[in-house]
Prior knowledge:
Shape: globular
Low-confidence stretches: none
Largest sheet: 5 strands, parallel
Number of helices: 6
Helix content: 40-55%
Mean pLDDT: 89
CATH superfamily: Response regulator
Number of domains: 1
Strand content: 15-25%
Oligomer: single chain
Distance between the termini: 7 Å
Order of helices and strands: EHEHEHHEHEH
CATH class: Alpha Beta
Number of strands: 5
Strand order of the largest sheet: 2-1-3-4-5
CATH topology: Rossmann fold
Radius of gyration: 14 Å
Amino acid sequence: xxxxxxxxxxxxxxxxxxxxxxxxxxxxxxxxxxxxxxxxxxxxxxxxxxxxxxxxxxxxxxxxxxxxxxxxxxxxxxxxxxxxxxxxxxxxxxxxxxxxxxxxxxxxxxxxxxxxxxxxxxxxxxxxxxxxxxxxxxx
Length: 139
């Protein structure tokens, strides 16, 4: 498998929904979950991921306590470009505030935005788009 996932969200329910949508698309995908964005950042900085993974799709909640999604992306964008290039960050938000949406778009590391709740069709479409863009072999 050339694609894996990281879920960064502060609620267990959103983790459950995201995992369910991902495994419905393909139950062979590796999924890492973090309730705390700073722990996810530590994991990414360790850069000790499974061989054969070309792209790691990150579902990032924007509003979380401790380190929110905006702060996470600001720190992520300071990482070495070789590390950043392995990740495809998708902002998850229920916000309709223009200032939030513009802020999300201002980060080069954030490739897309999906409105919560995450739906199966969103995940399937996203996986297909990423597979085509990065020439991934999906089982």
